[in-house]
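Session log. Operator J.P. requested a structure for one protein chain; no other inputs attached. Running the standard single-chain path with token output.
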Amino acid sequence: MPTKATAKDAYYEAVGRRKTSIARVRLFPNHTGKTFTVNDREKEDYFPTPELNQIVTQALTATDLDGTFAVSVHVSGGGIHSQAEAVRHGIARALEEYDAELRLPLKKVGYFKRDPRTKERKKFGLKKARKAPQWSKR
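Structure written below.
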């Protein structure tokens, strides 16, 4: 598998994130076989519902580039829906690296937004992040 060091346009790589999910995305242009693998499995096997499959490919369909790239993704952390949106974020960032003019249409539909929400840490003196012990007068 060629890397960026050996050939200039071998692939376009980007990282997509949402909540605690992280997706490393690689787009291979001029690829004859239309493949989309997630963690070395087919996209339909990893994301079983049609809704998740649609979320994953939204960035490619919004730019009319669906089927022109072979996509390889390694995703970890979070839930399956969060992982699907992290993959979408990574594909959008890799498409921007491929062609800078694609940034505006992808930004208008909101595919460059990174959802930063994570679990709030537990504070000392409390039972959870915000839950305090029951107050008693005596």
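Operator note: The mean pLDDT is 89.
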